[in-house]
């Protein structure tokens, strides 16, 4: 009798936390999934709306498609002075140039900071870290004057040349962090085998820092693709417009009737970012966690 | 280790035993150094000079002393743009970080599918700075936008959130809070550094969830919180795209979304008042510098360093 009640009270005490601990993950999942849905709902809705006819954008807050049309895409593609292909190509040129520039110049600077000893190294390193935090607005006016005197306005040069000169110091820092994790013994071994500093860089460090280069590539891709401020300032000729600048001019030039095609082109502009995110999220999250910017 | 941590620990480092090779060092550094002087420091000096001049790009700059700065003292639109920017920064950044921290703590507790949620919450950080999302925001918060359509389903009558000066800035705050994913990822990385041993010990002592959060998690996370705070404040002060596109380039309605950076763009590239724009840019640098320095100063009293 007594043992039985004891037994029962023990099981009772055990079952109570068991049910809660069974429910708890469920509750958390519901809350997390709910907030994720709320966050992404507008984006999903934009994609859906772009595939709907005409002005349903202003009527249907749901995300079911009854009548799938790609008309908005056809109209939007040719709504501006140039077909959208042109803007995509312009953006692609800027993005590729920027990636190439960042990879070459930032890896060189990072190798110097992480592995070489030279006079004034600490000083330059501090300057490099500070420059990460410098607002672009402080330099934009004289830069504009400089580039316009060089005749570079409405070319991609003001957008690419700075990257060739490692002005995205954030990536220098990211690569320095990475190189520090590569064992110095490898450099030593290569040096004993007769490698100079340049070939240690080219044959040992560069191949080993591929993950850091991948992170740099993906971040540069996304940031440059989305970048608006500098492209707005340097590209004023509609033939030279990149995707963000073209989209912006869409906002100016349209009435409410063409929201559908504006949404369609917005979706087009987000597709590359989304693909880069899918392919590279491992590198993105690692890059953020190790250097923590943006 | 973060960029801020690096900066703090620079003094303490001993040079490695390697021989100095100035030629190799400076050769590898050459592109960066060239960029530093041509693209960064040169223009900084030039803009400092221009801030004391009247310059419209066509005629040569004319020295006018402190006139640009005294003009800033009496420029009502500039004062308004400061109010707007400060409101934006000091409302959106704490909100954004609070949500980032909350979700990081929830995700850190071994939730199944954690990587999936992390990716989903992180995605808006990548999209948030694009023109496309700003266009979406214009629609969502418009008079016949998505928000009002949803409210309508519940029988609530909405309004033109963007056309109303009292709520326009709020839509931009929401947009910045929406991008809480990247500070969240940084928090998650920080949470992983906290030894589980601490939590086990606290549990044995009978500490509840809240107690463990405030006595273990939060103090040990303060360096990361500080880092996020500094960066997000610097970042928010420089916001441009979203306000520019959402307001159709005007900073309206009634200058209610006229960020400092928008006003700077308007002066410099709308009116080619380059001298005044340069003075404004330096003022912005000073503001950001002061807040960053204040942050570093205050950190002595609330940031807890374990080592």
TrEMBL record, chain A:
Predominant cellular place of this UniProt entry's protein: membrane
Organism domain of life: Bacteria
N-terminal signal peptide: none
Chain segments annotated as transmembrane: 26-48, 87-111, 123-147, 159-179, 200-225, 259-279
GO BP terms: transmembrane transport
Bilayer disposition of the protein: Multi-pass membrane protein
CDD domains xrefs: TM_PBP2
Cellular component, GO annotation: plasma membrane
Localization in the cell: Cell membrane
Residue ranges constituting the ABC transmembrane type-1 domain according to the UniProt record: 88-280
Alphabetically ordered keywords of this record: Cell membrane, Membrane, Transmembrane, Transmembrane helix, Transport
Entry similarity comment: Belongs to the binding-protein-dependent transport system permease family.
Protein name listed in UniProt: Carbohydrate ABC transporter permease
Organism: Kribbella sindirgiensis
UniProtKB/TrEMBL annotation, chain B:
SUPFAM superfamilies named in the record: MalF N-terminal region-like, MetI-like
InterPro entries tied to this protein: ABC_transporter_permease, MetI-like, MetI-like_sf
Protein keywords: Cell membrane, Membrane, Transmembrane, Transmembrane helix, Transport
Domain ABC transmembrane type-1: 82-295
Topology in membrane: Multi-pass membrane protein
PROSITE patterns named in the record: ABC_TM1
Main location: membrane
Signal peptide bounds: none
Protein's cellular compartments: Cell membrane
Transmembrane segments: 23-46, 86-107, 119-137, 168-191, 212-237, 277-298
GO biological process annotation, one example: transmembrane transport
GO CC terms: plasma membrane
Family to which this protein belongs: Belongs to the binding-protein-dependent transport system permease family.
PANTHER family: ABC TRANSPORTER PERMEASE PROTEIN, ABC TRANSPORTER PERMEASE PROTEIN YESP-RELATED
Protein name: Sugar ABC transporter permease
Organism encoding this protein: Kribbella sindirgiensis
């Amino acid at each position: 009798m007594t043992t039985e009640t004891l037994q029962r009270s023990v099981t009772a005490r055990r079952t109570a936390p068991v049910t809660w601990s069974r429910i708890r993950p469920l509750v958390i999942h519901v809350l997390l999934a709910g907030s994720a849905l709320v966050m992404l709902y507008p984006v999903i809705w934009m994609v859906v709306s772009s595939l709907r006819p005409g002005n349903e954008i202003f009527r249907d807050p749901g995300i079911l498609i009854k009548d799938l049309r790609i008309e908005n895409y056809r109209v939007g593609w040719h709504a501006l002075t140039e077909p959208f292909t042109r803007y995509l190509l312009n953006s692609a040129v800027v993005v590729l140039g920027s990636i190439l520039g960042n990879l070459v110049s930032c890896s060189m600077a990072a190798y110097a900071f992480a592995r070489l000893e030279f006079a004034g190294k600490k000083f330059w390193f501090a300057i490099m870290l500070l420059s990460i935090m410098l607002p672009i607005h402080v330099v934009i006016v004289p830069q504009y004057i400089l580039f316009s005197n060089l005749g570079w306005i409405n070319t991609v040069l003001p957008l690419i040349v700075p990257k060739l000169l490692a002005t995205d110091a954030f990536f220098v820092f990211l690569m320095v962090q990475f190189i520090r994790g590569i064992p110095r013994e490898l450099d030593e071994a290569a040096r004993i085998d007769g490698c100079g500093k340049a070939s240690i860089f080219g044959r040992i460090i560069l191949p080993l820092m591929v993950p850091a280069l991948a992170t740099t590539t993906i971040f540069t891709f996304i940031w440059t693709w989305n970048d608006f401020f500098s492209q707005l300032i340097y590209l004023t000729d509609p033939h030279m417009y990149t995707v963000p600048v073209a989209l912006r001019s869409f906002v100016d030039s349209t009435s409410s009737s063409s929201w559908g095609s504006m949404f369609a082109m917005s979706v087009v502009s987000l597709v590359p970012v989304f693909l880069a995110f899918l392919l590279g999220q491992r590198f993105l999250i690692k890059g953020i966690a190790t250097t923590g910017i943006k | 280790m973060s960029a801020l941590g690096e900066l703090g620990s620079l003094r303490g480092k001993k040079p490695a035993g390697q021989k100095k090779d100035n030629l190799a060092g400076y050769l590898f550094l050459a592109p960066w150094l060239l960029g530093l002087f041509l693209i960064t420091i040169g223009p900084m000096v030039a803009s400092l000079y221009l801030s004391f001049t009247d310059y419209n790009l066509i005629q040569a700059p004319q020295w006018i002393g402190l006139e640009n700065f005294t003009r800033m003292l009496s420029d009502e639109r500039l004062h308004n743009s400061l109010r707007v920017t400060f409101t934006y920064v000091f409302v959106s950044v704490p909100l954004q970080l609070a949500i980032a921290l909350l979700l990081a703590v929830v995700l850190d507790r071994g939730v199944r599918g954690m990587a999936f949620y992390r990716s989903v919450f992180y995605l808006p950080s990548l999209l948030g700075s694009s023109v496309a999302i700003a266009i979406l925001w214009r629609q969502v918060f418009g008079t016949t936008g998505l928000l009002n359509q949803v409210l309508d389903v519940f029988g609530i009558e909405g309004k033109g959130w963007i056309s109303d000066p009292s709520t326009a800035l709020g839509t931009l705050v929401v947009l910045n809070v929406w991008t809480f994913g990247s500070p969240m990822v940084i928090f998650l990385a920080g949470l992983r550094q906290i030894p589980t041993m601490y939590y086990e010990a606290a549990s044995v002592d009978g500490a509840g969830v809240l107690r463990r959060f405030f006595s273990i998690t939060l103090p040990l996370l303060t360096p990361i919180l500080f880092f996020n705070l500094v960066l997000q404040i610097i970042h928010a002060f420089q916001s441009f795209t979203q306000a520019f596109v959402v307001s159709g380039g005007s900073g309206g309605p009634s200058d209610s979304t006229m960020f400092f950076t928008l006003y700077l763009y308007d002066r410099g590239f709308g009116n080619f008042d380059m001298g005044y724009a340069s003075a404004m840019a330096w003022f912005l640098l000073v503001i950001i510098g002061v807040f960053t320095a204040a942050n570093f100063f205050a950190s002595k009293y609330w940031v807890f360093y374990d080592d």
